Amino acid sequence: MTWKNHILSYKSYLKVERSLSPNSVTAYLQDVNKLVQFLQIKQLDLQPEDIQTAHITDFLEFINELGVSPYSQARIISGLKSFYKYLNYDQNLGHDPMSLIEAPKLGRKLPDTLDIHEIDELFGAIDMSTPEGQRNRAMLETLYSSGLRVSELIELQLSNIYEEMGFVRVIGKGSKERYVPIGKHAMKHIHLYCDHIRSHLNVQKGHEDFVFLNRRGRKLSRVMVFMIIKDLAAAVSLKKNISPHTFRHSFATHLIEGGADLRAVQEMLGHESITTTEIYTHLDKEYLQQVMREFHPRS
Q1: HSE of 219 in the Cβ direction (CA atoms, 13 Å)?
Q2: Which residue of the set 173, 176, 191, 293 is catalytic?
Q3: φ/ψ (deg, to 5) at 272
Q4: In angstroms, rounded to a whole number, what is the distance separating the alpha carbons of residues 14 and 4?
Q5: Sign of the four-CA dihedral 33, 34, 38, 41
Q6: N vs C: which end of the chain shows fewer Cβ within 10 Å?
């Protein structure tokens, strides 16, 4: 049987025999589909009965690199364990690649991701009556909206924002460029910042095109972005240890938890293909926008 047939059979089992709600059924099926997407990315023509523990380990390493939190990883592992338990019960599969897989230890440290309520709380605590507050709101909205690295954020240039298309052009690691969707919330706050704050700064020579500037008219430093986020976390008494990368992880986690295609998230994050010899097909920009609209909490 193919993945499609196994998944349809599993779906019926969840609905009829386990009497799960539609939302629960969807969540279980998303866990299995994430593994299927991973196999497609790796160009592995394997059916459920061909999967070994090593394949599951590679898959978990892949989603970990995408920034999926330990809690979400545990949820995905639980879903895959349920799927293979069903296959062994109903299809006499003969082996279980999930039997040796353990969920990540959740009690050791707090996950470095934020839920949408924590993000709203952080953004809501920014003092929008100050020039720095308007800049910081625009900056953090952009960080979360597009999943940028801190280095990509401070290097973001006005000439690389294509508002009509809904994309920003990002120069990532190794000077490789990519186009990432940017949400309406982020664009709104970029406009507010540029029109009311940035336009009144004495911009220093060589810094004219950088989006986010300090009060002296120079582009922000990495350290300054870290400090802004640390101070904001302290202001709302957030117990988690967060950094600019936390917003990038949260961006990826929220998309994947919502059901977004792993390949689309990989593309937007600018991650290299897991297998360096693999030919990676870049996804259509319109499809990336569709993923953002459907699955990003602030779209």
Answers
A1: 18
A2: 173
A3: -70, 155
A4: 15
A5: positive
A6: N
Architecture of the domain delimited by 118-295: Orthogonal Bundle (1.10)
The letter for the amino acid at 5 is N
Q: Exposure of 33 by Cβ count < 10 A (0-12 exposed, 13-18 middle, 19+ buried)?
A: middle
Res 173 pLDDT > 50: yes
Weakest-pLDDT range from 139-148, 180-189, 241-250, 276-285 = 276-285
Q: Does residue 173 carry a catalytic annotation?
A: yes
In what side-by-side order are the strands of the sheet with 161-162?
A: 161-162, 167-171, 177-181
222 part of the active site: no
Of 44, 46, 2, residue with least CA distance to 273: 44
**For the residues 188-215, what does the mean pLDDT come to?**
96
Please provide the DSSP assignment of 177-211 as one string.
EEEEE--HHHHHHHHHHHHHTGGGS-PPTT-TTBS
Residue 148 pLDDT exceeds 50 = yes
Tell me whether residue 285 is one of the annotated catalytic residues: no
> Domain residues of the chain, as ranges?
3-90, 118-295
| pTM (predicted TM-score) | 0.69
Q: What residues form DSSP beta bridges with 180?
A: 168
Catalytic residue flag (residue 271): yes
